[in-house]
Amino acid sequence: MKRYIIVLLSLLAVTFSACAQKTGPGYVVGFYNLENLFDIYHDDGKNDYQYLPDGSNQWTETKYKKKVHNMARVIRAMADDNARFHTILGVSEIENRHVLEDLVCDPQIASANFQIIHFDGPDRRGVDVALLYRPDQFTVLESRSIPFTFDSKIKFDLTPIEQEEFRTRDVLMVRGMMGGEMFAFYVCHLPSRLGGKGADLRSRGGEIIYQDAMKLMQEFPGIKIAAMGDMNDNPTDESMAVYLHGKEKMEEVTSEDFYDPFLSMYKDGYGTLAYRGEWSIFDLILVNETLAKGTTGSLQLQPLVRRRGKTYFGRVFQKDFMTQQEGQYQGTPLRTFSNGAFVGGYSDHYPTYILIGKNK
Predict the structure, then answer these.
(1) Which of 22, 101, 186, 218 has a beta carbon 3.0–4.6 Å from 227's, enabling a disulfide?
(2) Calpha distance 79→64 (Å, rounded)
(3) CA distances (Å), 237 to each of 206, 240, 280, in order?
């Protein structure tokens, strides 16, 4: 079913006038694809030549600083809407730790005192995932970088030789304490859709997260888990619905499932990115049963958006300054480059987040 831009714009206008922008007490957990946040220096082993001063993008210090400033502006805008900074913010398409250090030190968000968890990964393009967190609200106990493997019953299109040569982003897992309870956060950027391919690889990515999460739940009974990332798939695709066991309705979720708050939003026409006039939600956050339902007095997922009698437990964050206001791509995310020209935008994805609070 087509999700045209004009439908989304009218839907967003109604939604954000109807929902409370200042949420109650709780922890904001979100994800943002920063769309090629590269510095201006070459990193050995990374295909970053396009993002050098003499590269095809003529990636100068001025452009880089503008990009960092823009990313910080969006994070600040989310904090203003929520009356607090994120406790947890997963990010993707970052080149290295250096760009994140510049980002968290930007004056717009420096007061959050975000700390960084990042591992250099094997991706051919040279982009990684990472996690930003507030140390006053989240205490890290463990972090791991989980590699992509082909140890699965999934039938892959790649030959054994191609599998050995395949390189993509690792999955980041961070376990720690928040509000006196144990949490684990997975951050991922699953393989690309380039050329209409890779569905089997994204299914394997979902399977990797799911298998690791199930082991954690056995080792730490009651742990609360959120899996987030640019899935390069919609909530209805096999990687999310089958291999990550994403469910639309909370009452359907068992201890072996994840609740996907963006599945119903996707069906209702929401999107985080647009391609040829059709909207998708690739930027997902799924939570396990313990976090989705909670128990009395414990932390659980909280409602964020209410519209026409319907409650949503996730939010796609969109502001006019983040959106193309005219031309061919009017109404879509205002990206850094358009048709090869630097336009000084933000990202080709809108960020998403959830709210976690006490179940009374």
Answers:
(1) 186
(2) 23
(3) 11, 6, 11
What is the Cα–Cα distance from 286 to 284, expressed in whole angstroms? 6
Total H helices, total E strands in the chain: 8, 20
Token pair 């295909």: residue: 47
Look at residue 328 in the predicted model and tell me its pLDDT. Answer: 87
CA angle 155, 161, 164 (to 5 degrees): 85
> Residue 17: is its pLDDT beyond 50?
no
**Consecutive H or E run containing 88:** strand 88-94
Q: What is the torsional sign of CA 231, 305, 176, 79?
A: positive
Q: Could you tell me if 204 and 150 are in contact, meaning their C-beta atoms sit under 8 angstroms apart?
A: yes
Beta-bridge partners for 334: none
Closest of 313, 339, 311, 309 to residue 324, by C-alpha: 339
- What length is written for the chain? 360
Torsion of CA 238, 241, 245, 251, to 10 degrees: -170
Q: Write down the residue that tokens 């080709």 correspond to.
A: 348
pLDDT at 295: 85
Q: Does domain 5-355 have CATH number 3.60.10.10?
A: yes
Question: What are the structure tokens assigned to 284, written together?
Answer: 């997902």
Cβ-contact 240, 203 below 8 angstroms: no
- Domains of the chain, residue spans: 5-355
